[in-house]
TrEMBL record:
<dbReference type="InterPro" id="IPR020904">
    <property type="entry name" value="Sc_DH/Rdtase_CS"/>
</dbReference>
<dbReference type="GO" id="GO:0008206">
    <property type="term" value="P:bile acid metabolic process"/>
</dbReference>
<keyword id="KW-0560">Oxidoreductase</keyword>
<feature type="domain" description="Ketoreductase">
    <location>
        <begin position="6"/>
        <end position="190"/>
    </location>
</feature>
<dbReference type="InterPro" id="IPR036291">
    <property type="entry name" value="NAD(P)-bd_dom_sf"/>
</dbReference>
<protein>
    <submittedName>
        <fullName>3-ketoacyl-ACP reductase</fullName>
    </submittedName>
</protein>
<comment type="similarity">
    <text>Belongs to the short-chain dehydrogenases/reductases (SDR) family.</text>
</comment>
<dbReference type="InterPro" id="IPR002347">
    <property type="entry name" value="SDR_fam"/>
</dbReference>
<dbReference type="InterPro" id="IPR057326">
    <property type="entry name" value="KR_dom"/>
</dbReference>
<keyword id="KW-0520">NAD</keyword>
<dbReference type="Pfam" id="PF13561">
    <property type="entry name" value="adh_short_C2"/>
</dbReference>
<dbReference type="GO" id="GO:0016491">
    <property type="term" value="F:oxidoreductase activity"/>
</dbReference>
Amino acid sequence: MNFENKTVVITGSANGIGRGLAEAYAASGARVILSDFNEEQGSLAAHSLTEQGLKAVFIPCDVRKEEGIKRLMAEAVQHGGSIDILINNAGVSRWKSPYELSVEDWDDVMNTNARSCFLATREAALYMKKSGAGGAVVNISSTRSIMSEPNSEAYAASKGAIVALSHAMAISLGPDRIRVNCISPGWIETGSYDNLRSEDHKQHPAGRVGVPADIAKACFYFTDPDNDFVTGAHLVVDGGMTRKMIYEP
């Protein structure tokens, strides 16, 4: 898909899935605004794209802070002229027993993962509405929004909140031609397949562990201007794992 002359803001894009999304959108012709709490890695990610002749700029942001998000969106418009697409990808996790999970841990996960999606979408939507052209938002949740492992309460709650927030904002922002959708990735390997066992791939009905490009393709679908009938949707991209019945041998 061609996103020439589109400005795309991606939070949490210094590493992992976010960086993969930034690379994919930049390669498709978009002006990419990378943002992350990690300034060193974020700057390196943007520099690697500009070295290839692609359009990218890094703006640091702590998505736990409302003023930081407001500043990010204002600077994104200064650099790109508009905000056409927002990908809310920033996130953290705390794998602690519910007996040990502190209120501070809970609040940090919820504020980073869920509240930031609301704040970033609200602030980006103000510019999208003002332009009259509308836009598209994709919130990155997780299959942990619909299934769990032990000691994942804060993470699961935050990701479930993202799914619900996505369809709520799709309804609220629809009249302004702003579409909001949600993706729940499963196991996405952001390192090297060389570190995986054959069993890791075989347990997936699709026959392999996912890669960031799989999530990028889903984002492309949701943010393509031609797909203006798709909003409020929740797409699970996990190689079929959440549909697989598992019994003890």
